[in-house]
Amino acid sequence: MKNLNLALKLKYLHYLKSLGFCYVKPIKDFEIKESFELPSSMAGLKTTVLGCHLCELAKTRTNVVFGEGNENARVMFVGEGPGEAEDKSAKPFVGKAGELLTKMIENAIGIKREDAYIANIVKCRPPNNRVPAPSEVASCKPYLEKQIELIKPELIVALGATALNSLLGQNHSIMKVRGTLMEYKGAKLIPTFHPSFLLRNPSAKKEAYADMLLIKSLLWKH
Ligand code: URA
What we know:
The chain is of the alpha/beta class and 222 residues long. Helices cover 46% and strands 11% of the residues. The structure holds uracil. Uracil binds at residues 79-83, 86, 92-93, 97-98, 120, 196.
């Protein structure tokens, strides 16, 4: 939230600059609000996110990819960021990686894709599908945090190292920790391989399948 507030202050300074100010003396009793509250409804949050220009990715995106699915989902999948197909369609995981993710959800876990919620760490496509920069993650993370707060999933599946480490603010090796039960703000967190990695490394699909079975067993527990 601190980074979002700083980014908002920066945006305000850019606005002043666009009006012609080059230096502003401190104005007594003038205060930029220290805390910024995101909307507490999913529809309101989506409106805010669709109008976001807090980072460089806003300049090159075609569409903001907010996320989609059941707002009361028990399980939420978190990817890295939109690719080309997602940027064009404004929907998460609709390209080749998305087809594989849908199969993992429906065939291995045994729930419908629409019954889960799918979102990304950053909501706008990084150019050439590069890994999002830490500053881009920092600007965008409050949106994902709010989505998680509103959905209250029992289980979060972090797809790949970027999703896992951006959520936890750590530096885990996905090779070492995939398939282990972790925790994020009271929800269970399971890291697994990103579907794009699985497309490039099909031999890792058996481990990902085992992770899906663990997810299934956790969802069946009650
Ligand atoms: N890869 C991701 O991480 N997210 C998407 O939405 C699509 C591909």
